[in-house]
Amino acid sequence: MPASKIDRSTIACPVELTMSLISNKWKTLIIRNLLSGRKRFSELSKGLPGISQKVLTANLRELERDGLVLRTVYPEVPPRVEYELTEIGMSLKQIIEVMLVWGCSYQQK
């Protein structure tokens, strides 16, 4: 896995570091969808209406590079590729859940 493009040593604020990893709209939604378990590319695509294959691929690569998503390629014909959250990625569950609660509350106001 290539090194993350985010240089942790230059970001002093932990909130800024977290936001730099997940602030993209699609990354947060990809993480949310993977919280329920391992998924194939097509499953992720169906669960994210409006995302193009190119954008989904780019975001999955960035999440993998940053250590949040694990990509597993199975030696089968046709090839099977699955994505799942790493332990670090799963540690974002509480943040996503709080965002869900806050968003629901905000929608009702």
UniProtKB/TrEMBL annotation:
Alphabetical list of PANTHER family matching this protein: HTH-TYPE TRANSCRIPTIONAL REGULATOR YODB, TRANSCRIPTIONAL REGULATOR, MARR FAMILY
Source organism per UniProt: Candidatus Avisuccinivibrio stercorigallinarum
InterPro entries per the UniProt record, alphabetical: ArsR-like_HTH, HTH_HxlR, WH-like_DNA-bd_sf, WH_DNA-bd_sf
Domain of life: Bacteria
Domain HTH hxlR-type intervals: 13-109
Keyword field: DNA-binding, Transcription, Transcription regulation
Name recorded for this polypeptide: Helix-turn-helix transcriptional regulator
GO molecular function: DNA binding
Listed GO biological process terms: regulation of DNA-templated transcription
Keyword DNA-binding: yes
